[in-house]
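Hi F.,

I've been meaning to write this up properly since the lab meeting, where we talked about keeping a consistent format for the predictions we share between groups. The idea is simple: the sequence comes first, exactly as it goes in, then the structure tokens exactly as they come out, then a line or two of notes. No screenshots and no reformatting. I'm using this chain as the first example so we have something concrete to point to.
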Amino acid sequence: MTDPEKNAYILIRRKLASSRADIARMLGVSRPTASSIVQSLIDANLIAECGKGKSNGGANPIALAVRKNHVFTVGIDLGYTDCMSAVLLDAAGSIIAEKEVTFSSSELYDLAEKASSTVAEFYKIHPISGTAVALPGIVDEKSMTVLKSINQNYYGDTIKKLLEKNLDMPVTVGNRSRMAAFSEAFGGAGDKENDFAIISLGKSIGAAFWSGGNIFNGSSCAAGEIRNMRLKNGETFENNLAPEAIGNMTTDEIAALCADGLVQLADIMDLELLILSGRFADFGYPFARKLENIMSCQHPVRVRSARFGRFSAARGAAFKLGEMII
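Output, unedited:
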């Protein structure tokens, strides 16, 4: 596949382009060249024509969409205290199956066994091209090396090598907050938004910043590490929102704790949209509204719950892997 073909495929898959005219405009190529690129993708059974699209004044364009059945990927989120979240994704980014299974994050054998069993179940539904893992920690995505994590067992390329051996397929590794942001940017709560921050709560708390259509990584892949932010009570964000700390709290009390830290974040980053992912999904849609109402920022900030809830990071990891495989 040529670079223009791959770029066109990604635009169509992300629903940023839906016609030959869109491809020509977004890739900066002529209409005949765009038509040639699209025809190559059709011939390769990667995309298909699917009726008429919306007209901008002329004739209705022929709409384009990704064929769903040419590649399937699995995403696994290891960010919760004792629960592994996994999804099976088709080429268009739709979740075909999802599963949560308890596991011990301190026992690599148990992790590998539960991951292998989950992937095997999904394989019965569709053949799988690869597995992607989202985990808490600073990850160098070029080398897929975990530079730092609250779980020492995840350091280096341990998880990647272990799962590749057990699953006998390619495995990628990424930061769970960034994978959740990637997920919500395409088909989720951040769809068609240029800028937002996603706040993900698991065993710890993390953030990712979506800016101008891309993840902001920072100079050392560490952007979004908010767990050590100090709140008004002197404790860190991580300590305040640890599972054992909020176990008996009401959602009003949890919202008050979150608001303190998130106001700081929104003001520093000049944010207009915050998306809540991970364990925040357990609190439901009203929690996002409540948080939005009590945050006193320099300007109004919208707060949304992640569309894919507890499976957001797993979906994002699988969705990104689908583009890497192509």
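Notes:
Residues 70-326 form a domain with the Nucleotidyltransferase; domain 5 fold (CATH 3.30.420.40).
The first strand starts at residue 47 and ends at 52.

If this format works for you, I'll send the rest the same way.

G.
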